[in-house]
Amino acid sequence: MKTKLGLLYGGKSAEHDVSLQTALAVIKALDLEKFDIYPIYITKEGSWVKGPQLTGPVENVKSLTLSAEASMSPFAMQSAGQVSKEDGDEGFDCLFPLLHGPNGEDGTVQGLLELLNLPYVGNGVLASSAGMDKVIMKNIFAQAGLPQVKYTWFIRSEWEKDKASAYDKIEAELGYPCFVKPANLGSSVGISKCVNREELETAFVEAFQFDRKIIVEEGVVAREIELGVLGNDHPKCSVAGEIIAKKDFYDYKAKYEDGDTAMVIPADISEDNYQSLNEMAISAFKSLDCSGLVRADFFLTKEGKMYINEVNTMPGFTPFSMFPLLWKHTGVDYPQLIETLVSLAQERYEEKQKIKYSF
Ligand SMILES: Nc1ncnc2c1ncn2[C@@H]1O[C@H](COP(=O)(O)OP(=O)(O)O)[C@@H](O)[C@H]1O
Ligand SMILES: [Mg+2]
């Protein structure tokens, strides 16, 4: 029996184009003997378009951007999978949301798929939404006893009422340098590093353009080490990798435009450090009740102090992204990684079907 797999890509998100690249690479890697693949494109405006089954390799991303004229209601996803119109065609065996950022990685799409009772790859509603909000994520990590840099947060209306005390609080509790970030975004958008009050003021204005809530963190001088986690109830870690930014920090431009960063895999760290990061990554995964995958990102200082920075519930997923490369070095190549994620999705779905809804 082949697996009928729907790939969700594009999305109403700043990371739309990255998602297209990912979809192209995933399609290329999937074994057509094992999978029937259906493209489901979400336009930048948020329309859902299902394309015909892919019977061969796709040449370029252009052929993946389907026309919104044929769009459907997202609620039609269940019947959209019933392509043969025969009795017993239960629709998609699995959906793979290859979506990053808000409207895809934040629990919204996951919630839709839950309502439709469709199996899907990756994190559920709770882990996705908690992982998207840096304040909620850090509060949960704090509760799990994970070491983090000092942080505080502000709501826009609070700050508008009394800006000076917001800045005073930061200077008293965190000092400079500090990092100002929108709470619900990724890809370094809206993030600033500040070394004085003037920069802090500018950074607040900038970050509040992207969210009504912002987080401010103590800045550390540290190496950036990342681990991949894969699994459901018994997650496993990959080897560690290091991001070396040639810029002051790993900003949007460095990430996507300049290629001004290098990845070192495996990272040159001690076995003891690796063991600690491994435990922290698993603890972070469990604390957010993750499933499928996350990439856990850490700071490692010269003095050997380790802090968790964040987890990404749908990390960059092209074959040249950190997460797939970490697993490649751990012995799981890209096609195997995709197949493992689909199996994990089905395992979690089966598990969920055991739940009783009446008593
Ligand atoms: N507290 C901090 N101290 C030092 N550098 C930081 C700090 N927070 C963020 N950075 C730098 O900014 C980058 C982006 O921040 P991050 O919190 O990872 O946001 P995003 O979710 O956009 O990836 C990090 O990879 C790191 O280079
Ligand atoms: Mg990051």
From TrEMBL:
Residues 138-343 form the ATP-grasp domain. Belongs to the D-alanine--D-alanine ligase family. InterPro entries: ATP-grasp, ATP_grasp_subdomain_1, D-Ala_lig_Van_CS, D_ala_D_ala, Dala_Dala_lig_C, Dala_Dala_lig_N, PreATP-grasp_dom_sf. It is an enzyme of class 6 (ligase). Gene3D superfamilies: 3.40.50.20, ATP-grasp fold, A domain (3.30.1490.20), ATP-grasp fold, B domain (3.30.470.20). Keywords: ATP-binding, Cell shape, Cell wall biogenesis/degradation, Cytoplasm, Ligase, Magnesium, Manganese, Metal-binding, Nucleotide-binding, Peptidoglycan synthesis. It is found in: Cytoplasm. NCBIfam families: D_ala_D_alaTIGR (TIGR01205), PRK01372.1 (NF002378), PRK01966.1-2 (NF002526), PRK01966.1-4 (NF002528). Cell wall formation. One of its GO terms (molecular function) is D-alanine-D-alanine ligase activity. It comes from the Bacteria. Its main location: cytoplasm. Transmembrane segments: none annotated. This is D-alanine--D-alanine ligase. The gene is ddl. It catalyses: 2 D-alanine + ATP = D-alanyl-D-alanine + ADP + phosphate + H(+). Pfam families: Dala_Dala_lig_C (PF07478), Dala_Dala_lig_N (PF01820). It comes from Peribacillus huizhouensis. Its EC number is 6.3.2.4. Pathway: Cell wall biogenesis; peptidoglycan biosynthesis. Its cofactor is Mg(2+); Mn(2+).
